[in-house]
Specification:
Helix content: 40-55%
CATH superfamily of the largest domain: Protein of unknown function DUF881
Largest sheet: 5 strands, antiparallel
Strand content: 15-25%
Number of domains: 2
Number of strands: 8
CATH class of the largest domain: Alpha Beta
Structural class: alpha+beta
Mean pLDDT: 79
Number of helices: 4
CATH topology of the largest domain: Alpha-Beta Plaits
Order of helices and strands: HEHEEEEEEHHE
């Protein structure tokens, strides 16, 4: 009887502690549930803001990449235009196929078995001859021209000073070598046509030869022209 009573008392005490513990747990759960839900909602809201920020940053990166690509394209276009302008103005050395033309004054005294020209009829290369030659080359499509290593551009002056010829203010002397970049056949044909410049210069005794070349180098302008009055409009 005593043992049974003791066992019954132990069971009742255990059951009472279990019920009290369950009630406490349920009470804590009811108290913590709103807090956990609030935290969950706050976390989801923060995640949404982070996703939106990531999207904004991704958009910014795409805009920067596009701007960079457009900038590179614009830079390439500007560099190509600058190169073209440098070629046109003679500020850079260029190379390509073309022809080499050599002009020499007529000899005052020919070989003993050939008739000799009177001194006043001896053919001398003049500035007008070089100007004529340059114009014929340009009309034939020459893209770059030089005379005795002097680049010929729109501002180039070719003139006689006494018995000397100057190009860009620099004295040059015979033999005169003119190089021109362009289609070799087209340039040669323009100069050697019947009644053309070669035939007429040779008729005065001037010796002129034309040599096609696969690779012609035309130097850059040695003196940059200065402008006092002209300005962009």
């Amino acid at each position: 009887m005593a043992a049974a009573a003791l066992t019954l008392g132990f069971l009742i005490a255990s059951l009472t502690r279990g019920l009290l513990s369950q009630q406490q747990t349920d009470s804590e759960a009811r108290w913590r549930s709103p807090l956990l839900l609030q935290r969950l909602l706050a976390s989801e809201e923060a995640n949404q803001e982070l996703r939106a920020e990531v999207d904004r940053l991704r958009q910014k990166v795409q805009e920067y990449e596009k701007a960079q690509l457009e900038g590179k394209t614009l830079t390439r276009q500007l560099m190509a235009e600058m190169t073209r302008l440098r070629v046109l103005t003679g500020l850079t050395r260029v190379r390509g196929p073309g022809i080499l033309i050599r002009l020499e004054d007529a000899p005052s005294q020919g070989p003993s078995d050939q008739p000799r020209l009177p001194l006043d009829q001896v053919g001398l290369v003049h500035d007008a001859d070089l100007l004529w030659l340059v114009n014929e080359l340009r009309n034939a499509g020459a893209e770059a021209i030089a005379i005795n290593e002097q680049r010929v551009v729109s501002t180039t002056a070719i003139r006689c000073v006494g018995n000397l010829i100057t190009v860009n203010g620099e004295r040059i002397s015979p033999p005169y070598e003119v190089v021109a970049i362009g289609d070799p056949d087209q340039l040669s044909s323009a100069l050697t046509m019947k009644g053309g410049i070669v035939e007429q210069l040779q008729s005065t005794g001037i010796r002129i030869s034309i040599m096609p070349r696969n690779d012609i180098i035309v130097p850059s302008l040695s003196v940059t022209p200065k402008f006092r009055f002209a300005r962009p409009s």
